[in-house]
Write a structure and sequence with these properties.
Oligomer: heterodimer
Largest sheet of chain A: none
Order of helices and strands of chain B: EEEHEEEHHHHEHEHEEH
Radius of gyration of chain B: 18 Å
Shape of chain B: globular
Strand content of chain B: 25-35%
Helix content of chain B: 25-40%
Distance between the termini of chain B: 27 Å
Order of helices and strands of chain A: HHHHHHHHHH
Number of helices of chain A: 10
Distance between the termini of chain A: 31 Å
Radius of gyration of chain A: 23 Å
Largest interface: A-B, 24 and 28 residues
CATH class of the largest domain in chain A: Mainly Alpha
Strand content of chain A: under 5%
Number of strands of chain A: 0
CATH superfamily of the largest domain in chain A: MetI-like
CATH architecture of the largest domain in chain A: Orthogonal Bundle
Number of strands of chain B: 10
CATH class of the largest domain in chain B: Alpha Beta
Shape of chain A: flat
CATH superfamily of the largest domain in chain B: P-loop containing nucleotide triphosphate hydrolases
Structural class of chain B: alpha/beta
Chain lengths: 266, 252
């Protein structure tokens, strides 16, 4: 049997590509399962993966009800952060003085320990959605701002000279050259920040919330149910992976020129 | 000689605490192809930047068609070193860039550019991205982007510097044919002596920094010069003269 037809060959190559990852993850879970089963350790200390999965299925409604608020906080918070990062990146690109005035504040905001700031934000803004949005924005704003600002700076100097020679004003040079040149940096930043966003939302809920994966984890821990803690962790991991995958897809759609190969003879 | 279309008189320029240009005076007539030839770092590109308004000269004046060149007027189409193609724009959209900046509608700009693709050897590559083109094709795309701006004069900054030797020679031959056919007005900045002698009607030779013009050579040889012929011994003689000037600049 031969696999000379392209679709079959592509599937084979994809499987070959992810096989090592599947093997290592599978092995890890297998070792965990065997240890939890045969070492005599109590399931209230270390539950086996199969038990975590079974309990996740049993408690799927509760898990789902607590996932929705977390998704909402993540998506809203990250959207706000993205919009703010874009606006500020444009402002500091056009006004250098503003950059020097604002950057210290942004950097200091990154030095605040989340453990200390999360309860305070909850204290000030209550148990609703606002403190979650703020905390998600706090952890994701700066990485996105830096990604965009660096992206603008990565514009090829020759392209800027060319546009200047054509008589393009500053804003036109930004739209035609600096913004598209920043896209690879933007998406690299997006992939990283979106994983922070989920963690940020869960942490905000942990500090105080009516519902959400964070508060679910806290309650499960207080009830000595590490299996449910891990079930919630599994959900949050899946959530992060989904958002990560979505950002990769958006990049794929937004940057078609990176999909075309280098020069090939025709 | 006919009245010059561009005149630079006594241009001097300091940049970053360095005297870059000491005293540059040159002129170009309409339809003329003039090269500025000088060692690396002599300030050749600075001359073009002063013309495109990127930098202001400290002394001297620039006249275009008899009147002082002002920033608002932009009579030059500039082709920067390397090709400066935008990787995110297709070949067609790269070539219309100058027209778009001028405010020409996209459809109209495309309509104007399209007929030129065949002559530039780019037919069938309109919807490709620059990363899919060879070095020579990228350079032709950049030149097409320069030509369609329909400015009175073109400024070419070492356009073939990044190409391999064979591709560069092919591009020079092609460029010579294009110029013989269209007789566009152009300044070519280069450090390639052969290239300058093969393509130019006239050559200004620069000294090392701070640059002044040490020699001006009129090249009155038949075209095409990039093919073998009886003109070649004369070309070699001119090349040798210029090389001596460049390699032993002290005698000036």
């Amino acid at each position: 049997m031969s696999f000379s037809n392209p679709p079959a060959r592509r599937i084979i190559s994809t499987v070959g590509h992810i096989l090592p990852a599947l093997c290592s993850v599978g092995l890890l879970i297998l070792v965990w399962e065997l240890y939890a089963r045969f070492s005599g350790i109590s399931p209230t200390t270390l539950p086996s993966p199969s038990r975590v999965l079974a309990q996740a299925v049993v408690h799927r409604h509760a898990l789902w009800d607590n996932t929705v608020p977390t998704v909402r906080a993540t998506v809203l918070g990250f959207s706000c952060s993205l919009a703010a990062a874009f606006i500020f990146s444009v402002l500091i690109d056009f006004f250098r003085r503003l950059r020097r005035a604002l950057f210290p504040i942004f950097i200091i905001s990154q030095t605040l320990p989340l453990v200390a700031i999360a309860p305070l934000v909850v204290l000030w803004f209550g148990f609703g959605l606002t403190p979650k949005i703020l905390l998600v924005a706090l952890v994701t704003f700066f990485p996105m701002l830096v990604a965009l600002a660096q992206g603008y700076e990565a514009t090829e100097e020759e392209i800027e000279l060319l546009l200047a020679s054509m008589g393009a004003p500053r804003w036109k040079r930004f739209l035609l050259a600096r913004f598209p040149a920043a896209l690879p940096h933007f998406f690299a930043g997006l992939r990283i920040s979106i994983t922070y966003a989920v963690v940020g939302a869960i942490f905000a809920e942990y500090a105080g919330a009516a519902q959400g994966l964070g508060i679910y984890i806290l309650n499960a821990k207080n009830n000595f149910r590490p299996d449910l803690v891990l079930a919630a962790v599994l959900v949050s991991a899946l959530l992060t992976l989904t958002l990560f995958g979505a950002s990769v897809l958006v990049q794929y759609a937004a940057m078609p020129w990176t999909r075309r190969g280098r020069y090939t003879l025709r | 000689m006919t009245a010059p279309i561009l005149e630079m008189r006594g241009i001097a320029h300091r940049f970053g605490g360095l005297d870059v240009l000491a005293d540059i005076s040159l002129n170009i007539a309409a339809g003329e192809f003039v090269s500025i030839l000088g060692p690396s770092g002599a300030g050749k590109s600075t001359i073009l930047r002063i013309l495109t308004g990127g930098q202001r000269p400290d002394r001297g004046e620039i006249l275009f068609e008899g009147t002082t060149l002002e920033a608002s007027r932009q009579p030059f189409a500039f082709m920067p070193q390397r090709d400066a193609l935008m990787p995110w724009r297709r070949v067609l959209d790269n070539t219309t860039l100058g027209l778009e900046v001028q405010g020409v509608k996209r459809a109209e700009a495309r309509r104007r550019v399209q007929p030129l693709f065949a002559e530039f050897g780019l037919e069938g590559f309109e919807t490709h991205y620059p990363s899919e083109l060879s070095g020579g094709m990228r350079q032709r795309t950049a030149l097409l982007r320069t030509v369609v701006q329909q400015r009175p004069m073109m400024l070419l900054d070492e356009p073939f510097g990044a190409l391999d030797a064979l591709t560069r020679f092919g591009m020079q031959r092609w460029l010579e044919a294009m110029w013989t056919h269209h007789s566009w007005t152009a300044i070519l900045v280069t450090h390639d002596v052969r290239e300058a002698v093969a393509l130019s009607d006239r050559i200004y030779v620069l000294s090392p920094r701070p640059a002044r013009i040490v020699h001006e050579i009129e090249i009155d040889l038949p075209r095409p010069r990039t093919v073998a012929g009886p003109h070649q011994p004369q070309m070699t003689a001119i090349e040798n003269t210029i090389l001596e000037l460049l390699l032993h600049p002290k005698e000036e």
